[in-house]
Design a protein that fits this description.
By secondary structure, the protein is α/β, with parallel strands linked by helices. It contains 8 helices and 17 strands. The protein has a 7-stranded mixed sheet, covered by helices on one side. A hairpin with a 2-residue loop joins strand 14 and strand 15. It is elongated, with a radius of gyration of 23 Å. The termini are far apart.
Length: about 300
Amino acid sequence: MRVVFMGTPDFAVPVLSALAESRHEVCAVVTQPDKPRGRGKNMQFPPVKEKAQEYGIPVYQPVRVKELEFVITLRELAPDMIVVVAFGQILSKDILDIPKYGCVNVHASLLPKYRGAAPIQWVILDGEEKTGITTMLMDVGLDTGDMLEKVEVEIAPDETGGSLHDKLASKGGALLLSTLDKIEAGSIVRTKQDDSQSCYAKILTKDMGKIDFSKSAVVLERQIRGLNPWPSAYCTLDGKTMKIWRAQIEDENSSGTPGLILSADKRGIRVQTGQGILCIKELQMEGKKRMDSDAFLRGYPMKDGMILL
């Protein structure tokens, strides 16, 4: 099968590799334009572009994939299939109609739940016990096309956004190849999505990391894991930003002002929340390295009664 691959971030790279090393021909890769990064504002390639260059695959980087000039380019490429993995732009009907077999999306959730930009993080934030990968035949809606195949992944109790990202990314390639084989053989089963079962995984923003200690310890612990590594959960201590990378929920009941430090010792920094106690195990002060709470307290003693905001 002659395939055009559309994708941008790290999540899409394993799928591209699986496709490039399969019997299918990847005739082109389409990704987002290079962007300036870091203090020097040096131009940085999207991860998918770097991988495509390793395989010697031609790369296209349109600012707007919907523009007529690029639609014409896609038609000239004459793909049998367009595969889309976390590309970052919406495809027009003109593009969806180009390939013989349509456009297949590899989506990081068990559709119809968690349509949208950040399904990996939201399943942790919402306390789900499982998630997965779904291949879907794309239509003009947002992640609304017919489902093709799925693979489920259990969410570990200590799962972070980063660890779940890697788990799911490793599953996408094999699932895609299975889906392509069945499409080509005419044996694929299409299942319509039940819109009543859907929910939207909105894009992450930096301000989502701000911890509100009036919420329960359960909700805050999920926030810390789900937003690790980006945008990360944070509060302030003595007017400085403190990122919290790992914490545990304590069963002990207590009452007091949310954000109140109940104790700080080798066991961790125990903080009162709106419901329950959150014990901080790993943190990072503004301008400093990540460290466990025990190491932090050796250089930054904290007194009972201090408040985290």
